[in-house]
Amino acid sequence: MVLLNVEDYRREARRRLPRFVFDYLDGGSEDEVALTENRAAFDRMKLTPRPLTDVSIRDQSVEWFGQRLSLPLILAPTGLNGLFCRNGDIALAKAAARLRIPFVLSTASNNSIEEVASAADGDRWFQLYVMHRGFADQLVDRALAAGFGHLVLTVDVPVSGKRDRDERNGFVMPFRLRPKTLADMVLHPRWLWQVGRHGAPAMGNMLTAGADPNTQAALLSRKMDASFNWDDLKRLRDRWTRRLLIKGIMHPDDAARAVSLGVDAVVVSNHGGRQLDAAAAPISILPDFNRVGAPLVLDSGIRRGSDVVKAVSLGATAVMIGRAALYGLAVGGEEGVVDVVRLLQAEIDRTQALLGLPRLDAQGQAA
Q1: Are the C-beta atoms of 326 and 311 separated by less than 8 Å?
Q2: Which label site among 8, 109, 130, 270 has the fewest CB atoms less than 10 Å from its CB?
Q3: What's the angle, vertex CA 167, arms to CA 133 and CA 29, rounded to 5?
Q4: What sequence ranges are listed for the domain FMN hydroxy acid dehydrogenase (predicted)?
Q5: Which segments of the chain are extended strands (E)?
Q6: ∠251-253-256 over CA atoms, to 5°?
């Protein structure tokens, strides 16, 4: 089968994965209004071609703190990647290194900070969930020691979104196999041989740290520290000595306040439609953030290269891709991730040519 775009990879991932695994990857919260709107907002946005421009050479690089990223793409932090591919976090990190784009390792990864640092070179970032203050400090120190260059603090999970698909499938933590789930696994022998026979993937950062049972349970059930506030952000800024991003910001005043406290960049995100189902689509509010005075990263809903061009045209320096990369991971492991990103890269390039846009980070193409 020839896979021509991200949607083709999505359909193939759906075919290969058990229902409960695919729904965990693909689903959103409640009625999935935010999930649907993330895509619809991109579809409504149009671009204005400007022909008779020399586009024989096209530059897709963007500036990031004084250096050039070859592509405005970042592999987003995603949890439980070991469900889609054996050692999925390592596969993602290796793919990112080959593509020369950043990879963000999640707190909820199945491979630990140290395993990923040992297995993959490249531009590695670490994403932090705060469940327990002391354990969060340990994770920050470990990421520093392992050479992770950026910290991405996720702030939009004071409580976990209600994900109806997961509840219907019985995919709650700690996970318990049901007869229906076992039957579904048997119907997917390739996944069962490559992933399922090894058992439920462990939370690598928990095992390495020897986290207490309460902290492990909090991560498994996505129970975060709902008391984390601006003062705690200041304390984290002091502890982390490298670049700090804040992810899950949806109001420009919050972004400005974070920057005033020393945050280096802002990720405008509604968590891929997996948290507040009534949240706006990030692409629809992105122009409101241009006065913040810090680099912006757009997250949630990217499926085409033209989506990336739209985000950059509205002020984003780069975008994060989550599900798109995971569809590739589920289908082909490391190679599948590389293929998906290269498909997006080709679509970005074609969109630039058709727009008359030699440099991707030139502004003013949105209509």
Answers
A1: no
A2: 8
A3: 70
A4: 1-367
A5: 62-64, 67-69, 73-75, 103-105, 124-128, 150-154, 243-249, 265-268, 296-299, 318-321
A6: 115
Dihedral class, residue 170 (left if φ above 0, else alpha if ψ from -120 to 50, else beta):
left
Query: Under a CB-based contact definition with an 8 Å cutoff, are residues 281 and 300 in contact?
Result: yes
Please give the C-alpha separations between residue 62 and each of 30, 86, 339, 362, in angstroms, as whole numbers. 36, 33, 21, 10
Q: How many helices (H) and strands (E) does the chain have?
A: 16, 10
Distance CA 36, CA 44 (A): 12
Assign a CATH topology to domain 6-355.
TIM Barrel (3.20.20)
Active site residues: 271
Question: How far is residue 139's CA from residue 13's CA, in Å, rounded to a whole number?
Answer: 32
Burial of 179 from C-beta contacts in 10 A (0-12 / 13-18 / 19+): exposed
The DSSP output letter for 107 is T
Tokens of 350: 């074609």
Q: At 149, which amino acid appears?
A: G
The answer to whether 78 is annotated as binding is: yes
For residue 170, pLDDT beyond 80: yes
Q: What is the pTM of this model?
A: 0.95
DSSP helix/strand/coil, 73: strand
Q: What letter would DSSP give residue 135? A: H
Q: Tell me if 271 is assigned to a ligand binding site.
A: yes
Q: b/e string for 108-138 if b means 16 or more Cβ within 10 A?
A: bbbbbbebbbeebebbbbbbbbbbbeebbeb
Q: How far apart are CA 309 and CA 365, in angstroms?
A: 9
Q: Is the pLDDT of residue 343 over 70?
A: yes
For CA atoms 105, 106, 110, 115, give the dihedral sign: positive
d(CA 69, CA 318): 9
Task: Give 202-224 pLDDT, tens digit per residue.
Answer: 889 987 655 566 666 666 666 78
For residue 337, give the amino acid letter: V
